[in-house]
Amino acid sequence: MSTDRPLNFTLKQLRYFIAAAEHKSTKQAASALNVSQPSVSSAIAHLETRFGVGLFVRHHALGISLTNSGRELLVHAYEAVRAAQQFERAGFEFEATLKGSIHAGCLVTFAPILMPALGAAFKQQVPDSRIQFVETDQADQIDRLRSGELDLCITYDFGLKDDMDFVEIVKLPPYVILPLDHHLAQGCDVALEDLIEEPMVLLDLPFSRDYMSRIFDKIGRAPNIAHRAANPAMVHSLVANGFGYSFYNIRLPQATAADGKPFACRALKDGGTPVCLGIVTLKSVKHTKIIDRFIEFCRSHIKEIV
Description:
Structural class: alpha/beta
Number of helices: 9
Distance between the termini: 43 Å
Number of strands: 13
Order of helices and strands: HHHEEHEHEHEEEEEHEHEEEH
Largest sheet: 5 strands, mixed
Mean pLDDT: 88
Shape: rod-shaped
Number of domains: 3
Strand order of the largest sheet: 4-3-5-13-6
Radius of gyration: 31 Å
């Protein structure tokens, strides 16, 4: 909930107001709070000025008593302090327990293979966890991480900024995916030289497009890009339907496109340039206990999936 008018008082001032109302004396309130009497009087005066009402009637040598306005505001002061205490307890609970939400980003190219299995395994260990997955391209993940929308990203080490930490988990070499009836799909490995004249289906996402194009740098040639697609599922379907080959950095256990057509997945004969898959976090953010636990879980389990 937002407001156009900024708060111009503190919880401390509300507590001083409550204590003065309960003790009917600024002197006794100060003693109970272990602060000076002028501190209590100053807090009350600030609230009275802020709201333009008198909160107390001052009785010479007999203490103070609430005005009608003071009695009404006292009810809200109690509510505000209780809400602040609940907020504080909720905050400490993050550090003390394995409860809370995890907002994890994952690169769209392998999110369907990695994240559901990873999340299900983690929930078996930590049943109270709540994991929200966000599958996007690399550039969008970085933006969401820096805006605070994501707690962490499971992705490649492309385009990272100085304010980010990257923990490498595994290196993933590129594989060639081909139509099942393609002549190169029948062998074990595929050489880059064999792909030069073949039509390529490029995954047209930030950083991914550059990486795939640079695979051919080692032989000093450029790929024959015939089709582009921004969705990995579309790339797979184009390949399966004979529009060309592409690259993928995970050996697919079941090479089947979204339309049900199969395609082949073959290793590159020269190994290709691997990408580093890992976890990206912001250096400046202190994580909750459950997020730290999830990061450690990812570090030990991702290799088993990919």
